[in-house]
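Aggregate trends can hide what the representation actually does to any particular protein. This step matters because it turns folding into a mapping between discrete strings. For completeness, the protein is quoted in full, as a sequence line and a line of structure tokens:
=====
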Amino acid sequence: MQRPPVALCLAAALAACESSRPANTPAATVAAFASAVEAAERDGTQRRRVYDLLSQRGRAALDERAARASQVSGRALDPWEMIAPGRLRLRMTVSADSLTARESGERAIVTARGRAGGVADVPLVREGGRWRIDLALPPVAAPEPR
């Protein structure tokens, strides 16, 4: 009898774990965002995952930054490339069981309690049936004419 490849077993185990937790709740979205931010420190390709979890407002701000950076650099840059490696960090280590959510219609606040202390409230908005992290990024300053 042949044994299935290790990668196949691992993929099946991960799929089973993922299907057992809620996929579209404010707390699950914050947990996924925290995981993506932590992974992005080691793997720059995870910046796309961080971007995908942001609200339209957050993605629009990064889209604008990418358009401006593309003009300056002369090459097309993707919006998630505006999330600078090493500059995106969580203030605290968060575990999924420390998250509590308060929903009000299409908005939610998830309170995250850090393992070593600290508390943060994370705003979310429901867009297209999915919860998204609603971070407000400061506007990009227009270049001053010379």
Observations:
- The radius of gyration is 18 Å.
